Every structure is written in structure tokens, then in C-alpha cells.
Amino acid sequence: MNAPLISPRIQIAPGGPEFSRIVLGLWRLASWQKTPQERVSFLREALELGITTIDQADIYGDYQSERMLGEALHIAPELKKEFQFVSKCGIKLVSQHRPEHHIQHYDTSRQHIIASAENSLRAMQIDRLDLLLIHRPDPLMDADEMAEAFQHLQHSGKVAHFGVSNFTPSQFDLLASRFPLVTNQVELSLLHLPPLHDGTLDLCQRLRIAPMIWSALGGGDLFSGAAADADVQRVRVALQQVAAELQAPLATVAIAWVLQHPSTPMVLTGSGRISALREAVFACTQRLTREQWFTLWCAAAGKNVD
């Protein structure tokens, strides 16, 4: 890892934006206890690694993460032109910061989508979102109404592109039949395999849409000490084996395993440590053999291939 590390960039969909394959996930920003100036320094260090895409959501940090990012961008406004900004909406949390919310629920109405996007712009102190995602599928989602909201935000110049998060292939197809979508942000790791087999990544590959992957390290469970259950221990042993063969950190190998899928995933980081960002970017330089990739898949699935 002595050579300069730079995250590659990809166009995430036909006609879509160009993002860094390693994405700076800021959902834990409020817990990092960084001062505004320390946040600026962190953003600059991420840029030095070629990480130019930031992932946010209105609800992150109890509705405070976007505001905290905005404080940093207010100090260093020149950074606004260096990053691509992603946010999400559609979940309403009960919070002191949203006293009008009386029950936690989904809301994908036209009014809420537009209001949420505008709130995110104000909080982050930016003029446009490069991408807005619907955070979770809503049982009451009206695809036509959501498309109207997207059209309004796009025509007003407030949001460039749209996508979804945690949608099934059929839910993605429904909304995409009304408005072009450029990604689906889903959970995938050695501890969570369903997107490999439920059609989620097949659909992305068919449409040439790069998925965004959250929790690629299994929420940290792959590295959280010795008291893991048998399934996690089995994956950890296989990961240690492949990491030794590649002479790479465990986190790097776990992320490289995700990045190797032919749908060309982007991977979100979730750490406030620059060392963790370096390990993630290093994963972009690693290529597992098929035998190594399936060694990890078999350990994760708890079986050999049929």
C-alpha cells in the first residue's frame, strides 16, 4: 500500500453520473465527535484518495448528519465543487428535530419527497444533489406520484438523478417504468448474500446500472472479536486465508470480494478513520482468483457449490 491510492471512477448508468467506486458514507458522522474543522480535514483526506462521492440521508444522525456536513462545507465552500452529493428520503423518524412526526413510518408522497430534497440542500448548504434515493420501499408508494416529484426536482435543477435503496427487483421495475433510475443501494457482504441470488444484481447487470453497496463489512461483525457465532467464525477463517495469500488487510479482501461482482458495484465506507478509507480504496487494486472468490462464498453460504 506504498503506491498512491486513488479510487477509480465509473459512470454508474447509461446517461447517469460519474461517481467514485468507494463512496464516503456519513451515516455515523454525528457519532465521530469531529469538530467542523476536523470534518473539513477528513473530507480533504478523502479527496486525496480519489473518494469524490458522499452518501447521506435526511434521517442520519437523528436528522443532524447533513447539517454537520453543511457546517464543514460552509468553512470550506471550495469543496462543494469537488464532491458528488447523494442523499435519501422516504423514512419519517420520531425525533425532537421533527416534532411533527408522531409515528415512525414511510412517506413517498410528492410533497414529502420534494420537501425532503429541499431540506437536504439547505442542511448541506449546497445547490444541487447529484443523486436522490428513496430510502426504503413504501407499501403505499404511488409510482406516478413519485415520478411527478422527480420531474419537478429535476426540472428545477435541484436534483440531477434518482435511484432507490433496498428495493426488490419488482419494486425497482415498477418505479423505473415511470422514471429512469440510476442505482439501487443494497446491503451485500460475506455475511449477507441475498442480492447475489434474488435477482437484485442480475437486474443491475441487465440494465448496466451499478449498485451501491452498504455494510460491505457486515456491520463490522467480521472483525468484532472472538465471541462470534460459528457462521461468522467460518467466514473469518476463510477471509484470513485469502488475505494471507493476497498479503492484504482483512477489510480490503472483504471489500474486494464485493467489488469483483460484474455489476460493477460501488462500496460505501462507514468509518471516520482515514486508515479504513485507505483499506477500502486498496480493495480497488485487488483481484481475487475464482478459487479465492468461491472460497469466501462457500464459507459465507455454509456449503459447497452444487
Automatic annotation (TrEMBL):
<dbReference type="InterPro" id="IPR050523">
    <property type="entry name" value="AKR_Detox_Biosynth"/>
</dbReference>
<dbReference type="InterPro" id="IPR023210">
    <property type="entry name" value="NADP_OxRdtase_dom"/>
</dbReference>
<dbReference type="InterPro" id="IPR036812">
    <property type="entry name" value="NAD(P)_OxRdtase_dom_sf"/>
</dbReference>
<feature type="domain" description="NADP-dependent oxidoreductase">
    <location>
        <begin position="21"/>
        <end position="293"/>
    </location>
</feature>
<protein>
    <submittedName>
        <fullName>Aldo/keto reductase</fullName>
    </submittedName>
</protein>
<dbReference type="Pfam" id="PF00248">
    <property type="entry name" value="Aldo_ket_red"/>
</dbReference>
